[in-house]
Amino acid sequence: MSTGPVQPPLPNVFCWLLGKCEFYHVTQFVIIPPGLDVTILWAPEEEDKVQLIFALSFGKPRNYATGEVLYTDEIGFWHRGRGMKLHWDPLVESITGIVYPHITPATKEEPFEIRFVNRTTNITAIMDVSIWIFEYHKKDYQDFLEFARGFVNLFRLFGRFKTAEEAEAFLRGLAR
Amino acid sequence: MSVKGDKEIEEALKQGKLVIVMGKCDAKIRIQAPKDKVKVVVRE
């Protein structure tokens, strides 16, 4: 079971301050029968939307038949999206026990890809997953990217100063 | 959301399908998947 806070990154400030995106999470039960191997694509239904998936959180995976907690590397999912390489997430504590960070935008043209696999012959797994999302209109998402680039550029600028005194002198110059 | 014992879910599992059960919400999400392998169930 994921523990610890879901920490919304920079987009939260953008949403809250400027009202240009909306926050929500989708909570679902996923039930994975034995022998399964299937790929699904996740995207916003509307063409003009971007869903920025910024975290996943998990309940304890369980054996569907018995209700017992189930940790196994025989069941899990592959996934990938923009900025994320394809990789395997088995139902083990080091994955399902954390709030799993993402910065993965999904659009209708570029969906988030999840491939569920169950290599067992007789175990059905069930787990609950929450997917944490900021949703933008596409034009507002471009505004957000500009906003984020501004932060990057600001910190790049600070990276150019060799000493704290140089940075301070620069800032004092701005304040004059 | 009640999952265990739900006829629609049990039937899909018998057919070896992945079942995704989600609550109804305002967000419009598209899950694209082969129908013979995946059942998406939306609950009020």
Describe this entry's structure for a reader.
The complex is a heterodimer of chains A (176) and B (44). Chain A starts with 10 loop residues before the first helix and ends with a helix. Chain A contains four helices and nine strands, in the order H-E-E-E-E-E-E-H-E-E-E-H-H. With 176 residues, chain A is of the alpha+beta class. In chain A, 26% of the residues lie in helices and 44% in strands. In chain A, strands 1, 3, 4, 7 and 9 form a five-stranded antiparallel β-sheet that branches. In chain A, strands 2-8-5-6 form a four-stranded antiparallel β-sheet. By secondary structure, chain B is an alpha+beta fold. Chain B is flat and about 30 Å long. Chains A and B meet through strand 1, strand 2 and strand 9 of A and strand 1 and strand 2 of B.
SS element count, helices of chain B = 1
Major interchain interface with per-chain residue totals: A-B, 31 and 25 residues
Pick out the low-confidence regions of chain B. Answer: none
Biggest pleated sheet of chain B: 2 strands, parallel
The oligomeric status of these chains comes to heterodimer
Which stretches of chain A are low in confidence, meaning pLDDT under 50 for 5 or more residues running? none
The arrangement of helices and strands of chain A along the chain is HEEEEEEHEEEHH
**What is the count of distinct domains of chain B?**
1
CATH-defined fold name of chain A: Jelly Rolls
Estimate the global geometry of chain A from the Cα principal axes. elongated
Sheet of most strands of chain A = 5 strands, antiparallel
CA(first)-CA(last) distance of chain A: 53 Å
Estimated structural class of chain A: alpha+beta
Mean pLDDT of chain A: 90
